[in-house]
Amino acid sequence: MQWEAVIGLETHAQLSTISKIFSGASTQFGAPPNTQACPVDLALPGTLPVLNRGAVERAIQFGLSIGATIAPHSVFTRKNYFYPDLPKGYQISQYEIPVVQGGTLTIEVPSNSKTKQPSYKKIIQITRAHLEEDAGKSLHEDFSGMTGIDLNRAGIPLLEIVTEPDMRTPAEAVAYAKTLHHLLVWLGICDGNMEDGSFRCDANVSVRPVGQKEFGTRVEIKNLNSFRFLEESINYEVIRQIQLIEDGGQVIQETRLYDTHKKETRTMRIKEDACDYRYFPDPDLMPLMIEQNWIECIRATLPELPDSMQTRFIQQYGLNEYDATVLTQSKAQANYFEEVLANLGIGNEKQAANWIIGELSSLLNRDSINIKESPVSPTQLALLLSRIADGTISKKIAKDVFQTLWEKPNSDNDAVDQIIKSKGLTQISDSRALETIIEEVLISNTKSVEEFLLGKEKAFNALVGQAMKATKGKANPAQINELLRKKLRN
């Protein structure tokens, strides 16, 4: 029997507010345990929650970016369950009426050389996105035979984003998670730091025979905080369920954890249904009313979205799809590119893209820094590229200048010219001087001259290399080629 997987994702994104969703306690990561949990977070007697306006604004931003409906009226509820790191005995969330309803996200699934599956695009339907508070954190590693509880995360603002069961392969699930992560970081509503727990996924996985309309029994894989673990855990779970059914067993609706060391899922608890949580409206919170003029004010502040910017880069700057995609991997990188062009002028778009994707990205990766921390500013890179264009330096010399700027940062906008002048790197373009050098090269390399005259083109390249070496790379390569061929023809 042939089987297919049915996958839906629930993603918890920590919103980028400086205070918690219902209190003024800090959301800063890394504080000592239990130093950022205030009485409101713990629901101590006499305290009342107050909704964070910034969290609502970020939820609206997300909803608008995916074409969702923003509910004019939504309600906060209490989701009741008992867990050591849930100090209230309930979680404040949204159930029947979430703030964000519907919407879509278009993903691109990369090609797979093993299965010969080409890349393709797919639209994933978003069911809802609702606001809620996070629970605390149970600590197991540092306590022998015991569990420690850190309540710093209690009350952290979360946007839980739930998809329809539209995905059929682990690759589609990873593509969706990466696209969603990119969008949230692009909007600035989540820092996307998966190691800190700012972006984590729960995967709902079931299998069914190919062609069957009814869904199988789903299993939830909880708290996946890396794209690799997301793919591995779904792969394992799909195989486990198929083998279980084919052996005569039955899949149980449950919550499972992924053991990253054993590369397998294991039971955490039997999966609850909504009725088990005994949802009811939180009596301490008024309904959330969102007026249309507030929505329109937020819409006016939305940045240009990644897909729109990619299309514009292709149409406006004549870039190919690959370059446009790479340059819009982050908003900071896209802004860097456009700032270079603003200082460089029209006609140099491809060269600017090549340098950012090539030289700049290589050094950023080597030094593990982001583009905002680049020692070379967009203005400096623009000046460097203009010096290649006007013939002042060659591309090879430009790379040396770029390396110097990187290793010895200089905030002056004219630092490029300072380095060229101080190191005497100006390109040699004097025809008489170059002819003299070429004559010396021809005299010193008679064997290569003879080979070229016999029709061996590689010998010509060797002569060009010798000429460039004699000028210490300062000669104009195109001029060297022209003069050298002229000499050889004579």
From TrEMBL:
<dbReference type="InterPro" id="IPR017959">
    <property type="entry name" value="Asn/Gln-tRNA_amidoTrfase_suB/E"/>
</dbReference>
<comment type="similarity">
    <text>Belongs to the GatB/GatE family. GatB subfamily.</text>
</comment>
<comment type="function">
    <text>Allows the formation of correctly charged Asn-tRNA(Asn) or Gln-tRNA(Gln) through the transamidation of misacylated Asp-tRNA(Asn) or Glu-tRNA(Gln) in organisms which lack either or both of asparaginyl-tRNA or glutaminyl-tRNA synthetases. The reaction takes place in the presence of glutamine and ATP through an activated phospho-Asp-tRNA(Asn) or phospho-Glu-tRNA(Gln).</text>
</comment>
<keyword id="KW-0067">ATP-binding</keyword>
<comment type="subunit">
    <text>Heterotrimer of A, B and C subunits.</text>
</comment>
<protein>
    <recommendedName>
        <fullName>Aspartyl/glutamyl-tRNA(Asn/Gln) amidotransferase subunit B</fullName>
        <ecNumber>6.3.5.-</ecNumber>
    </recommendedName>
</protein>
<dbReference type="Pfam" id="PF02637">
    <property type="entry name" value="GatB_Yqey"/>
</dbReference>
<dbReference type="InterPro" id="IPR023168">
    <property type="entry name" value="GatB_Yqey_C_2"/>
</dbReference>
<dbReference type="InterPro" id="IPR006075">
    <property type="entry name" value="Asn/Gln-tRNA_Trfase_suB/E_cat"/>
</dbReference>
<dbReference type="Pfam" id="PF02934">
    <property type="entry name" value="GatB_N"/>
</dbReference>
<dbReference type="InterPro" id="IPR017958">
    <property type="entry name" value="Gln-tRNA_amidoTrfase_suB_CS"/>
</dbReference>
<keyword id="KW-0436">Ligase</keyword>
<dbReference type="InterPro" id="IPR004413">
    <property type="entry name" value="GatB"/>
</dbReference>
<dbReference type="InterPro" id="IPR042114">
    <property type="entry name" value="GatB_C_1"/>
</dbReference>
<keyword id="KW-0648">Protein biosynthesis</keyword>
<dbReference type="InterPro" id="IPR003789">
    <property type="entry name" value="Asn/Gln_tRNA_amidoTrase-B-like"/>
</dbReference>
<dbReference type="InterPro" id="IPR018027">
    <property type="entry name" value="Asn/Gln_amidotransferase"/>
</dbReference>
<feature type="domain" description="Asn/Gln amidotransferase">
    <location>
        <begin position="335"/>
        <end position="488"/>
    </location>
</feature>
<keyword id="KW-0547">Nucleotide-binding</keyword>
<dbReference type="InterPro" id="IPR014746">
    <property type="entry name" value="Gln_synth/guanido_kin_cat_dom"/>
</dbReference>
